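Design a sequence for this backbone.
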């Protein structure tokens, strides 16, 4: 019996095989002898963003092992397959097709890249297999490209930017500019932010695009871009960089004293755990940051148990990537329990309008477009002696319903 394939990460397939056999041998449920539930995961597992896939894989395996130890889904063991999308749409498409047609998975989970997500949404529909997206933020897959089989358990770009715009509108900044990557995510974020600011704070200005900063790929020295930022007249800056680009920007901008100025900076991915942990005490304090999940935000028993279990197993805190994959596995289980079956059509129907309690808080898959609606937290970076990295304090909560567009504004056809 194969539990995990095509992965070279820390938890070995042999370990999961042993866990599965122990569950079977110890008689958790005689129903485990029935056909297992099969879940296929598609993540970036190599290259510059391999850590994203590794974090997601860890979250998914924690959820699967918890579920199996508790009796599985409908008394059936859950098996997993992890495949590498390599951040390439064509690779992800072939992988999804293989998982469904050869491995006969009951559902697909994953997708880190918005570029990949936009290509595979239609493929999930063709395969008639539920796909739960856990990270890619493009609004299109729960907008114009929405379909019966595509769901997203994480927040999308428009929800994050709406919260940023609300925070900006409540600030003393009078004009806003942006720093992003020459990438669709940054362009779409800024366009949406500008539209929202016009509605939320008509007196505020947003700078014309030629005055904004969009950094090309493979740049290491940000000097010309920081020079341009310093010359702008804005007293508020929306920063939509992520990963190594964000960390490079923070280090170089801090060295020039940019954060000591009166400018208000909002970082849409500043609370991503990779940034906080790698920067450590080099992260300036007082910056407003967010991420789709912050492990200290929710004080619920559900979240505390998740953080405790994740720390015990992986000796680190769970990132938003780990939470997204963990949440997706539990969402599939909740839908299967609700439907009383893992049959794909029934699970897809059950996922629509499903509400469940996750570590990150109460989450609902909206029936019309299948977008997750959940609260989002922002906070200021804070030096806490109990942590080697910056934490978020104080925190500001944005209600899910307040930051989520109405369905008729998403482009998703009414079903």
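Sequence:
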């Amino acid at each position: 019996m194969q539990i995990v394939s095509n992965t070279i990460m820390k938890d070995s397939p042999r370990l999961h095989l042993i866990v599965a056999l122990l569950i079977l041998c110890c008689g958790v449920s005689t129903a485990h002898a029935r056909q297992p539930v099969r879940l296929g995961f598609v993540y970036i597992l190599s290259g510059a963003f391999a850590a994203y896939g590794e974090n997601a894989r860890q979250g998914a395996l924690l959820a699967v092992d918890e579920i199996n130890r508790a009796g599985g889904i409908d008394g059936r063991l859950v098996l997993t397959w992890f495949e590498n999308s390599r951040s390439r749409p064509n690779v992800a498409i072939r992988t999804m097709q293989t998982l469904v047609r050869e491995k006969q998975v009951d559902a697909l989970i994953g997708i880190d890249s918005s570029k990949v997500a936009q290509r595979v949404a239609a493929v999930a529909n063709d395969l008639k297999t539920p796909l739960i997206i856990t990270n890619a933020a493009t609004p299109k897959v729960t907008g114009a490209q929405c379909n019966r089989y595509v769901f997203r358990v994480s927040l999308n770009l428009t929800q994050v930017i709406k919260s940023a715009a609300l925070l900006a509108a409540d600030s003393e900044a009078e004009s806003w500019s942006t720093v992003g990557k020459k990438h669709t995510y940054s362009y779409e974020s800024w366009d949406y932010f500008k539209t929202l600011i016009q509605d939320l704070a008509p007196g505020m200005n947003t700078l014309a695009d030629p005055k904004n900063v969009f950094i090309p790929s493979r740049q290491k020295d940000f000097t010309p871009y920081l020079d341009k930022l310093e010359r702008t007249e804005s007293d508020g800056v929306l920063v939509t960089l992520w990963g190594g680009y964000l960390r490079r920007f923070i280090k170089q901008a801090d060295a020039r004293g940019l954060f000591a100025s009166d400018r208000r900076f909002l970082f849409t991915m500043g609370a991503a755990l990779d940034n906080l942990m790698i920067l450590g005490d080099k992260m300036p304090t007082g910056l407003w940051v967010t991420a789709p999940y912050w492990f200290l935000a929710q004080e619920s028993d559900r979240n505390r148990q998740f953080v405790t279990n994740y720390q015990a197993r992986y000796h680190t805190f769970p990132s938003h990537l780990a939470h997204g994959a963990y949440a997706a596995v539990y969402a599939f289980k909740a839908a299967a329990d609700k439907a009383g079956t893992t049959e794909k059509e029934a699970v897809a129907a059950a996922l629509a309008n499903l509400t469940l309690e996750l570590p990150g808080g109460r989450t609902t898959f909206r029936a019309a477009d299948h977008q997750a609606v959940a609260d989002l937290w922002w906070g200021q970076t804070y030096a806490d002696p109990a942590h080697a990295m910056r934490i978020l304090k104080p925190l500001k909560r944005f209600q899910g319903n307040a930051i989520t567009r109405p369905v008729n504004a998403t482009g998703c056809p009414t079903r």
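The chain has two domains: 13-155+298-373, 158-291+376-409.
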